[in-house]
Specification:
2,3-Dihydroxybiphenyl 1,2-Dioxygenase, domain 1; single chain; 267 residues; 8-stranded mixed beta sheet; 4 helices; alpha+beta
């Protein structure tokens, strides 16, 4: 993650359809839905209400009545990695799914309708990192950003950036902005000159049990306090809080093992 981060709106809200390629939603599939709701409700102050049920029990997390994320329940027989998944906006999910396939990616679920909310597909890039594609109808995506408890940034952790960046720029039309450094492999993905996501090549530092994966950063008021609260709630610290050019960041995991980061932006 670099100081080029430019999440969609440090202005508090989103009311319009997002440009294609913009991260517009994050979703988590778990085995224990009630326990996971309790964890994130206590950590971020979220409340929950039912969402579309096409893939099983699913709820939308609300912050002050505005939708910020989704949490669903995996079938008991599905032993999939528990992970936060970003959804990238599309004007035509069928066409995007075809582009994913033609560029070497995989479409694992869909495209399918999510009631009146919109249309989705769940895909993976050529390195195996999973992401969603969302064509909005009634549900435009995350309704508020830039305040504690909301997604702040999405970053792909992968072996090396070059090949996978080519995939994402071809499918979604991103402009790429690489960091010029001999020992730091990082590319910011821009849309219309605005940073929307990052790709971090970490080589052998990538966890073998996870492989390439997307990491969601959530805004918090105080990273250290949030880490303490997370541990009290049964979460785990993967990388302790540290200062960066963006603020104070910690990498953590929830009780089921879903990894995410806590970010306290500079004031």
């Amino acid at each position: 993650m670099t100081d080029a981060r430019g999440s969609a709106g440090r202005h508090g809200g989103r009311n319009a359809r997002q440009a294609p390629g913009t991260p517009c939603w994050v979703s988590l599939m778990v085995h224990g839905l009630a326990a996971t709701q309790q964890f994130y409700g206590a950590l971020f102050g979220w409340e929950f209400r039912p969402g579309p049920q096409q893939l099983g029990p699913y709820t939308r997390a609300l912050l002050d009545g505005r939708e910020v994320a989704g949490i669903g329940q995996l079938p008991p027989d599905r032993q999939l990695p528990i992970a936060w998944t970003p959804y990238l906006a599309s004007d035509d999910v069928n066409r995007t799914a075809e582009a994913v396939r033609s560029c070497g990616g995989t479409v694992g679920v869909g495209p399918l309708d999510a009631e009146e909310a919109g249309r989705l597909a769940i895909c993976s890039d050529p390195s195996g990192a999973v992401f969603g594609v969302w064509q909005a109808a009634a549900h435009l995506g995350t309704a508020v950003t830039g305040v504690p408890g909301t997604p702040a940034w999405n970053e792909l952790m992968t072996f090396e950036s070059a090949s996978v960046v080519k995939f994402y720029t071809t499918v979604f039309g991103y402009e790429q902005e690489p960091v010029v450094s001999a020992d730091f492999d990082y590319v910011t993905l821009n849309l219309g000159g605005r940073p929307v996501a990052g790709v971090h090549g970490v080589g052998h530092a990538l966890h073998r049990d996870r492989g390439p994966h997307w990491m969601t950063y959530f805004e918090v008021a105080d990273t250290d306090e949030a880490v303490d609260r997370l541990v009290d709630l049964g979460g785990h610290v993967l990388k302790p809080a540290q200062d960066s050019v963006l603020g104070r960041v910690a990498m953590v995991a929830d009780p089921e093992g879903a990894r995410f980061s806590l970010l306290q932006s500079p004031r």
